[in-house]
Amino acid sequence: MLRIATAGIEITLLIILAYYLLVFIRATGAVQALKGIALLGLAFGLAKLIHLDVLFALFSRSFSYLFLALVIIFAPELRRALAELGRRRIFSSASIGDRVIEDVVSAVMDLARKKIGGLIALQRDIGLGVWVQSGVYMNSEISTKLLTSIFQPFGPLHDGGVVIKGDRIIAAACLFPFSQKRSATSGLGMRHKAALGLAEASDAVVLVVSEEKGTVSVAVQAKLIRDLSEEELRKLLKESLHHRRSQK
């Protein structure tokens, strides 16, 4: 009976690991990389099968370096995937309420009407401390007027992004990482690339106001949702932030 129970546990764990691996591959766009690895594996098998000793020895010695290269290439995706696994925890981070959402929506729509560029990240479970340290620490109570004043042209804090945690503006003028996916960022401006990059590296909800077009976009779960109306923006924020709290 003990062996049967142990085997059942092992099978269950393998299924869970396989599921999360498939989710990771789908979320990170690693399919092309896996195709390349599959081709290398096929070449390795053929080299062994038809006794190409030199190629077989070369492939054998290269696998450890290949693994290291994959870890380096997919470092941001691995970080986000591991954070996703640890997201369901007992102690949750500060939640974002309706008042904060309304203040953010009002500020973003005001910036859009005036065609003033803006970049705002709403922190969820994954901490944004690395990017907070790149900006100017504020720890101020959030308000529509304060948010809009931060992004006024020629102001000292208008470049970079704002990080919001709970009901506080933690920092401004923060430098967010640019997305490394060229296919997804083709034709995008710097703010949109930074928003998508942060959404790839964390679970933050990142709002972008286009200075050129006066449109509003949201980057969430490594995807960019563009040209949102006020009601669409409000609905998306409530679904993203309230759904997360209900899960906890």
Description:
The structure is a single chain. The protein is of the alpha+beta class and 248 residues long. The chain folds into two domains: 2-85, no CATH class; 98-247, DNA integrity scanning protein, DisA, N-terminal domain (YojJ-like (1, 3-Layer(aba) Sandwich). Helices cover 56% and strands 15% of the residues. The chain has ten helices and seven strands. It has helices spanning 2-28, 31-49, 53-73, 75-85, 98-113, 129-132, 144-150, 182-185, 190-201, 230-247, and strands at 118-122, 136-141, 161-165, 168-174, 205-209, 216-220, 223-225. The protein has a seven-stranded mixed beta sheet with strand order 2-4-3-1-5-6-7, with helices on both faces. A hairpin with a 2-residue loop joins strand 3 and strand 4. Helix 2 runs antiparallel to helix 3, helix 5 crosses helix 7 (144-150) and helix 5 packs antiparallel against helix 10 (230-247). The longest helix has 27 residues, at 2-28. The protein is elongated and about 70 Å long.
Domains (count)? 2
Question: What is the count of β-strands?
Answer: 7
Report the β-strand fraction as a percent range. Answer: 5-15%
Described by strand count, sense and barrel closure, the largest sheet is: 7 strands, mixed
CATH topology of the largest domain: YojJ-like (1
Helix percent reads: 55-70%
Low-confidence stretches: 88-93, 244-248
**What is Rg?**
22 Å
**How would you write the strand order of the largest sheet?**
2-4-3-1-5-6-7
- The general outline is elongated
Under the CATH scheme, the architecture of the largest domain is 3-Layer(aba) Sandwich
Q: What structural category arises from helix and sheet content?
A: alpha+beta
- Average pLDDT taken over every residue: 81
CATH homology superfamily name of the largest domain: DNA integrity scanning protein, DisA, N-terminal domain
In CATH's first tier, which class of the largest domain applies? Alpha Beta
The termini sit apart by: 36 Å
